[in-house]
Amino acid sequence: MAKLWAIIKREYLERVRSKWFLIGTFLGPVFFGAIIIVPAYIASKSKAGTEINNTVILDVTQTGFGNRLAAVISGGPAGKPAAAKPATTGAHPSVRVIPPAALPAAESTATHEVMILTHTGYLVVDGRTIEGESVRYAGRSATSIPDMERLRSAVKEAVLATRLEKAGINASQTRDITFIPLNYSAERITEKGRGGSGIASVMFGFAIGFLLYMTIILYGQTVMSGVLEEKTNRVAEVVMSSVPTNTLLSGKVLGVAAVALTQQILWVLTTILMFKLRAPIMSKLGASASPFAFPSISPTAAVLLFLFFLLGFVFYASLYAAVGSSVNSEQEAKQAMTPVLLFIITTAVFIQPVLLNPTGTMARVLSLLPFSSPIIMPIRMAVTAVPPWELGVSLVVLVLACFGAMWVASRIYRIGLLMYGKKPSFRELGRWITYSG
Questions:
Q1: pLDDT tens across 165-181, in order?
Q2: Domain residue extents for the chain
């Protein structure tokens, strides 16, 4: 045990004191702060611009629908077509009433006007538009999501006003009838009671899955590179003369796991602080920030998250260590680690489907498989209540998989560190595993 602790301490201190660890730990909060504040700031400023008012409406309906639509786009009421006037000053959509046969020529003219910057675009409305089936826009704002949403809402409001007018309802009241500023919120309820915002839980679950995914990839490769470096520098030959290979492997894996956990804790604490400071910072920038509350995490859930992180890292780091000890160069290592990467990447592909349906059969199966449970099960725990028996089975399977991975890796490790020359074949790796000497 003393030798194991000494190896863990050495691996931990050697990496924590490195400048790259300090740089990565510092840049992490900067990155998280940027993705928390900058997108929210841009979103608060990304509103539909006044350029959309300079749109030409090609009205093929010949019913005055284009005038009504122009009034709505300009911010006015969806009143009677003949009386429709923009409610705001400045540029507003112009309406051209044309027969259906003249539409191709009218579109050609409007396209030329957009090209020479006379107008920003044109909107074609016809009988299918009045029926609420389709409308067509072409112009410079086609890639602007706020502008397209504004046009879409305006068309829906104008169509609804037309329908209400046909039903005999006063057209001047249609805006009051149809305008519903609904603020929709969703709260999660579990067997333990209210569980906070559903959207916040999904975001939290995705963050957990992403952090575990990145940690396993980055620090798993760190273990592989460390083993390969010791092998090429012949350091392992000296160390193995006084320390058993399984102790050496366990100390290396646990030491790097402690480094990864330290960095993750610092990143999580900094992220929470950034979320708390987001509203004041956004206020100083002249923008508003929507409220965000972190889901509550019980001590039991925190312990389970820690166990899944530790066991998942041990499982994958053992495989990476086996890869590093069986090759002789970085080029060979990149090729040999492909099977391990495929397991991790395959798991990452299923993160979004699991978030959409955390209680489905696929999510339950993936949370029991050892190569995916370290990422999938924490995500399910964040977004839904997982039955205790599933948690127990998942942990037991993962523990057994860790012992199996460590056993296989230690047997490859003890022979591979002392083998130089060509890359071993799968048959040779099998002999290394079964070798009992």
A1: 777 776 566 666 666 65
A2: 2-41+191-434, 51-178
